[in-house]
Each structure stands twice: as structure tokens, then as C-alpha cells.
Amino acid sequence: MLKNTVTRWALAVVSAVILSGTAMAQTKPNVVILATGGTIAGAGADVTNSATYQAAKVPVDKLIAGIPQLSNVAAVRGEQVFQIASESFTNANLLTLGKRVAALAKQSDVDGIVITHGTDTTEETAYFLNLVVHTEKPIVVVASMRPGTAMSADGTLNLYSAVSVAGSKDARGKGVLVVMNDEINSGRDVTKAINIKVEAFKSPWGPLGLVVEGKNYWFRKLDKRHTMTSEFDIEKIDALPQVEIAYAAGSVTDVAYRSLVASGAKAIIHAGPGNGSVSGTLVPALQELRSKGVHIIRSTHVNAGGFVLRNAEQPDDKYDWVVAHDLNPQKARILATVALTATNDTKELQRIFWEY
Questions:
Q1: What pLDDT score was predicted for residue 49?
Q2: Predicted local confidence at residue 53, as pLDDT
Q3: Does the domain at residues 242-355 carry the CATH identifier 3.30.413.10?
Q4: More exposed terminus of the chain, fewer Cβ within 10 Å: N or C?
Q5: Segments making up each domain of the chain, as ranges
């Protein structure tokens, strides 16, 4: 009698442990890692090579296998979308990636999405997704400044943190995020500020938060329109118009501007000094291009916290130009490219630059 009672008790304990473990496994978030290449998938010839290496060499399954601790924070699976260095990203790549992210976000068995990416255009892809993917589920873009073969490689911790954030309920509804070097930045604000340090990515208005040992700490919210509140939808966009950037400095001529328009550009981002200033010798050429239907958007190549005021330095109302607000030239290009799929009206374009 006693033996049978003990046996039943032991079986009950074992069953409870098994059920408890099963319940814990079921409560783990499901995170999909979409790999596109970049330094985080790079390899160097020697452990001392932190800046000299080949990007986009390691496939996503090996990235995941190299961090077994990922299973502690999420049920993870990977897809290899591209295997390229991010400076080679095209508008076609953005559309392909955006549509895949949007499709995954609709699946009930997906709680968050991580995109591994090269650092050169991380900020552009993150901002694009922030504009066109309609979901509250966390979308996290992650990269690294050193290949996995280097001493003090940053990719493994960055990826672990990115998966942790993507699986977090408190990261929902905050727009597309960039997670690197323990910081959680908005894909709208963040930019690559230096190319040889692991703390390469900065936002002029500060990070949204930090992730430390798998726990998120939030400090601010993004007030600009994004994801669920965006008027743009990747599912309705099948092509992106050509928008180009022309860099202005002392003694600049109109050659680059005219050449870019001749190649098919529908808008030119003027990356000017200071407040997006335009030299007197360049103004007539930009007026002429605008009269031919090409949009002129004034941005600034000031490295941190550039801010272009409308009708300051130049009479934008008179010339029918647009100002990029606080967006740097590369982000202004992304927004203009997306906006021109919906409108060609200057006033509407300016509204979009204020709101996004």
C-alpha cells in the first residue's frame, strides 16, 4: 500500500516537472532571424583582423548554432534572405526584405523578427521598414562592427540582445529598432557615426533604451509616425522611384545634380553644409531642375543633430523646395523614395517630412 502510494507520488512529481518544462517551452517567444549578410556574418584571416575581413561569409544557421544561449530567451529559426555586404543593398533588396518581414509579422506563430545586416546601410533599411511595415510586433535590425573571427567580436552579444528584445512584450509598438552595443535605438533616428569602434551607432536625440543581460530599460518614446500609424504599406508598393543624393561643399558645381537627373532621378537630396545651405552659383540650376518636375529636398551633412529649417537660408516656399527636417541625407532619400510612391505634391511631401 505504502509502496503504491510512493510510486504514484513519484510519477505525479515527474509528470509535474515534465508539464512545467513543456509550459515554459511554450511560453518562450518565437523569433525569426532574417539574415542578409554583412560584417556580423563576416570572417577575417586572423583574430587580429577587426577591420580587414570579408563580409557576408557565415550562413544564418551557423550564426544561430554559435550562440546556444539563444534558446534560453526564444524559440529561434533562421532564413537566409540575402548574403551580401550592405553597401550593395538596392531598392529591389529593400522591397524583397520588407515584403518578407510583413508576411512573417502576420503569422500567429511569430512574436518578433530580427534582421542581421551590414552596418553601412543598417540605418537606411531600418528606417525603410519603420515606414512601410504595419505591425506592433518588435522588428529589430542588428549588426556588428567586427567579424566573428576577431578578438572581442561584438556580433554574438549583439545578436543575443537583438533576439531578447525582439521577443520582449515591452518592445511592442515602438517601431523598428536597432540593437547594438547594449543600446536600443530607433531605426528612424540612429545613424552610423564612426566606422572603427563598436559604439558606432548613435542617435542625435539619444537611444530609446538599453538592453542589459536580457532585460530592457526604456527611457523615451519615438513621437514620429511609424509602422502601425504609417500611411505607407509595403504590400501596396511594388517599385520605388529613383532618388539620389548630391553632396555640396565649397566650390560645388551643378554637374552632379544635372547628371543624376539625366540618369532618371525624380528627386535630389541636396546634402548641404550647415542649414542645408545652397551656394548662390547653384541656386539657378536647382530652380531649373525643379521647373522640370524634379523635387529638390534640402538636407545637411552636419554629422550629429543636423536640422534644416524651412525658408531659412533659402526661400523654400518661393522655389517650391522641400526641407528634410532633422533627417540626414541617406534617411531623407529613403523617406522621399517611399513618399513619392504616394504623392508628387510638394506640400504633401513637406507634410510627410514633418510627420515621419
A1: 86
A2: 84
A3: no
A4: N
A5: 28-229, 242-355
Which residue out of 7, 27, 36, 39 is catalytically annotated?
A: 39
Cβ 90 vs Cβ 40: under 8 Å: no
Name the nearest CA neighbour of 111 among 143, 80, 142, 73: 73
pLDDT tens readout for residues 125-180 = 999 999 999 999 999 999 999 999 999 899 999 999 999 999 999 999 999 999 99
DSSP 189-225: T-EE--SSSS--EE-TT--SEEEETTEEEE-----S-
Cβ count within 10 A of residue 348 = 13
CATH 3.40.50.1170 fits 28-229, yes or no: yes
* Cβ contacts of 60 within 8 Å, gap of 6 or more: 33, 35, 41, 78, 79, 80, 116
Q: Which residue has the cell 580587414?
A: 52
Residue pair 280/248 in contact (Cβ under 8 Å)? The answer is no
Reply yes or no on whether 39 is catalytic: yes
Distances (CA, A) of 70 to 127, 138, 157, 184: 26, 17, 10, 18
Amino acid letter, 220? R
